[in-house]
Amino acid sequence: MLNLNLRKLEIILELCENAESWVTASHFAKKQQVSLRTIQNDIKEIKNELTAASCVEFQAAPRKGCRITITDDAAFPAFKDFYYKQFTSSSMYQNGRINQILLLLLEQHRAMSLYDLESQIYVSRSTLLNDLKYVSEILEKYGLELLRSSNKVMIDGSEVSKRLCILDQNLVITNATEIFSGNNDNSTMDRIKNILVETFVSFKHPVTEATLNNTIVQIYVALHRMQSCFFITPTDLKITENLAPECEIATEVYQRISEVFFIRIPEAEIDYFALYMKGQGDFGNTDVISTEVDHLVLEALKEINEAHDIDLTNNLKLRIALALHTAPLIVRIKYDMQLKNHLVDYIRQAFPQGFDLGIYFAAYLQKIFHKRVSDEEIAFIAIHLYSALVQKQKEDGTKRILVISSMRQSENILLRQTLLNWLSDDIAELAFISPTEMSESQLDLYDIFLTTEKGASYDMGLAFYINAFPNQQDYLNLKLAVDGFKNIDDIVSIFYKDLFFVSHGENREAILSRLCQSATAHFHIEDGDLQNAVLQREQLGSTFFGNGIAAPHPISAVSPDSFVAVAVLPQPVEWDKDKNMVKLVLMICIGKNNTKAFHLWNYLSTVFANRYFAEQLMVNPSYQNFVRLLKGTIVENSKTK
């Protein structure tokens, strides 16, 4: 893969979102506020980048522009997600071009040519020289010097000062994709955490949560630097304090780090970590996460738990990720410097529950700092929260599956591999037995039963039928079963015909009132509770999810029933202060303690992301057509898995 900057990644993602459609270079030039020649050069690099892609074909034509055509529907989502992750990683964790230059130079063992530097950050020589002035000013604060010749540049100074710069400038979070990758106990972050916790416990060394989180980041930076052959030397340190107790702990920590990561640790590194624990010496404040920010994140997560009954307060990786993101966000909020995020609509549609939790997180920040957090910033927060939801779902929701099949074990190999490919993240155990081996004792051992023949277990309703050579319909049926639904009609059942309306000439307030009153009567909800909860949620932020669709919902559950009330608007209605026009309103109410809430939101996201759903419904705005379109959207989405 080429080293693509944010602009090129954004172009690729826009082409993905508009696959098969031509987009002109002038459109990109206007949107990105750069010259047409710059975009034309970008498109040449993108063409080279996508040459090796097996699931798409890049095409360019005079006067038409460029486009991508999909050649493999099954592989395309993974292709798009790859570039989406590249974009979010870059836009969330690289704090602008200056920090990008700092990071590049700090990773060099020798002087770097200006040509190589400008090529990697995609700027002109004059822009680079101007940026280097700011880089030099930043380095001075850490006792570092930017050395320049006519065509080369490098950073000179001690390794201690360089690490302080990395930590203080939040350059460590450029590696957060790996840190918070969700690889459970195998991730670098988790392994460091486990080593520290076990060592601190064995030495009875008390630490606060914020201190533990900061120490994890400290070790991560040190490990990354040492793996890149940057070491602290004895001449970097001027130690006069007695560090005997801390050195004992530091020695044990680094002994285990050495064994786990296969790296030799110099004595000076151990002394430096001991000094960090001592908390003294002329090394400045190396806390990346302040106690105040850690407390703020924890309180925001508590409010999310109170409103949604989703407890993420014990998720260490999430709290570190949010704290690292929130610290600079606070500065941006205070000084009206909030970031732009051109993928906000995509994030809102693809991860609606994550975005909704992001609004609650932002509402807590707004309460503290008395300034609104933009939807663009909320979208960045939503990525962290959605990733935590996915991880929580994996931990809580994996299934044990038993396949009843009369075929020989050797004949089941294709079925086994297909099921593992489809549902590897959802399966805790996958076993095969013959019909004659089936007994009552197995009923309590497995969550889902499948059968390759329509025998007794199928007739009794115990097992789902699955083809020995499964197809897309089998995938959909199985995915629904794993998510807790009997079939697609089980999802459709929460859309009540009695709560389906076609509204003419009503404004937002009247539409919400009508939907709430109808649902209140239908489900015998305490009068006023639903409408008050829905209006409270509307005050937090817009419930417009793009593509002409709004999804209002109560700020917290007010009923044990889950349902969606629908209003079709042949005349679009202005929905929020941004003047977004809405054609379809889905008032979503997830019942109290509904274990399928996460999956319901995921299936609803297929509607939000469908650019043509609302338009197709307008052709025939009936309940029957709505159900047909809903089923079609879910089925079509399953084909891309």
CATH topology-level fold name of the largest domain? Mannitol-specific EII, Chain A
Radius of gyration: 28 Å
Which secondary-structure class do the elements indicate? alpha/beta
Sheet of most strands: 4 strands, parallel
Spans of at least 5 consecutive residues whose pLDDT stays below 50 are 174-185, 280-284
CATH H-level superfamily of the largest domain: Mannitol-specific EII, Chain A
Number of distinct helices? 27
Q: CATH class of the largest domain, please?
A: Alpha Beta
Organism: Propionispora vibrioides
Coiled coil: 29-56
Pfam families: HTH_11, Mga, PRD, PTS_EIIA_2
Domain PTS EIIA type-2: 492-633
What does this structure look like?
By secondary structure, the protein is an alpha/beta fold. It has six domains: 6-75, Arc Repressor Mutant, subunit A; 94-157, Winged helix-like DNA-binding domain superfamily/Winged helix DNA-binding domain (Arc Repressor Mutant, subunit A); 176-278, Orthogonal Bundle (PTS-regulatory domain, PRD); 291-395, Orthogonal Bundle (PTS-regulatory domain, PRD); 398-482, Response regulator (Rossmann fold, 3-Layer(aba) Sandwich), CATH 3.40.50; 490-638, Mannitol-specific EII, Chain A, CATH 3.40.930. Helix content is 54%, strand content 11%. It contains 27 helices and 13 strands. The strands form four sheets. Strands 7-6-8-9 form a four-stranded parallel β-sheet, with helices on one face. Helix 15 (316-334) packs antiparallel against helix 18 (375-397). The longest helix is centred in the middle third of the chain and has 23 residues, at 375-397. The two termini are 24 Å apart. The model is unreliable at 174-185 and 280-284 (pLDDT under 50).
